Amino acid sequence: MNKSQYKVFFWALFAFSLLLFFSPMNVAGADSRGLDKVVHFVLFAGLTISGLKGLKIQKHWLAVLLVLYAISVEHLQAYVGREYDIYDAFSGWAGVIFPIFIPKLKR
Question: pTM of the full predicted structure?
Fold first, then answer.
């Protein structure tokens, strides 16, 4: 993928995350077995990787913005009938931090 494709992918994934995180459905529960944590991790890792490769932003600023997004998502979900879950926020943070520390991932 080239830089512009990563940029498009970043914004498409961001739009998808908004739809997923703020839709009035509840995926957590006894049967989810942590699936929502995996979804948070994968989405934020995808946002981080595509943001690093497609956006003109320094790595640390992208990380700060995405971690703030992860925190905000959890707080705002209460307004669409979902619950705040600190572990979802932690999964989002991990999804942001993990790709940043992969040594072969370069702009």
Answer: 0.86
